[in-house]
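go over whats below:
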Amino acid sequence: MPKKLFLSVMLALVLFSLVRPLRCAAQEAAGPSSEVSAQSPAMPEPVDPPTEESAGPSTMFPHSQTAHWWVSGQFNSILQAYPDFHAYYSGPNSLHVQGESKTSVLETLYLGYLLGHGAEVFLDMESAGGRGVSDALGLAGFTNLDVVRNPDLGMTPYVARVEFHQTIRLSAENVEADRGPLSLATSVPARRLEFRFGKLSTADLFDVNGVGSDSHLQFMNWTVDNNGAYDYAADTRGYTYGVETEYQSRGWAFRFGEFLMPKVANGIHLDADVARARAENYELELRPSLLKDHKTVMRLLAYVNHADMGDYEASVARYKAGLDSRPIIENTRRQGTVKYGFGFNAEQELPRDIRVFLRLGWDEGQHESFAYTEVNSTVAAGADWAGGHWHRKLDKLGVAVVSNGISAAHQAYLRDGGLGFLLGDNPSYPAGAPPGGALNYGRENIIESYYTLHAWRGLYFAADVQHIWNPGYNRDRGPVLVPSARLHLEF
């Protein structure tokens, strides 16, 4: 979509969404119509109860709550731009100093079918197009989760998910469940086992957070919507093959997943030899009652990756020994290398429709960032506020802060001229140029805030702004301010 047309549509939606509630308020202030008899008070028109086919105002078209099939879709387009910013130097993987603007587009078709006896299958098709600013380079906490890190893949549609999901009842008691594109049941056993296998997204199942996991209606930054230190198994587009199983009860849950790793860092091809390459994921979910009538969820995460990964210290040692012209992580890769990490994820409902969240993450930082982003430690916290108190119940306001860091070995690798799949500010690259320290290390700190406005049915748009200090962990660059506009459709 051309940028001028995109902005025009956004402006029109703003006016429409703001004028409509004002008009309703004016009609209410005017009092009852003159056609209403003065002898009897005005009574509201009778309203038919909602049928099984009626959808809430959050989708363009109604979705059945009882049909065995599911068809839905989404469209998400994000326009991001930033002005020129200060930097003493730049490298091949730096965020561009000159201001720029880029638009991303993500479209998904969700298909599902309920087989019966707790079994269901899903097939999702997707298309990801456009680009991120600086082609998604130069930031560990990149500003747009929808961006595919290899823009040369283009917009050709691809199969995102092919999943089989089985639920096994362990209790007679049922609890309500939200029906949606990845789960068709409206009620499930209070105690149960669940199994999933096929092509899926690890981030659909692990480290999920109700306040910060959705780039379509919430935050946009990679390290706000996910734990930046969680190098979760995925190809370039964010999907993998594997199996996941979980036990669910009212007070707690435990899940385990085994997934395929990419053949190379940030690669599109997965390694099917599980004897040498795989990812084990473990998560314990607790639901204590800390505030009456307000949900609390805490998740403890651990993961172990086995892949053809390189070693930061070994790369620097080879460079200093004169074996390489700069640290080259690819020259130290070994099949079966192990990388591990841990995470903590909590969300808490508060009065007045406010929710808060916290994420903590750490990985061992000796071996290369391989599948998600270049973060070895992270702290993120934030909140959102639903708009019911200003009579816009589907609007949402959110703010979050995140601080990302890397290990000493990772710092030395970048400082001496090494390149990660996202970062590398050293101007002495390419090989042959005189070496020079080019990483004045500082934690990459980000504040993000957004307002998502519900315009009509499944039509939403949002304004978002991200302020980033020390982009790419470099005090010699930035800060940079990245405003965004988002158009989202739920079908």
Remarks:
- The helical segments are 3-29, 202-205, 222-225, 312-320, 408-415.
- The domain at 3-20+67-490 is CATH 2.40.160.180 (Porin).
- Residues 1-57 have pLDDT under 50 and may be disordered.
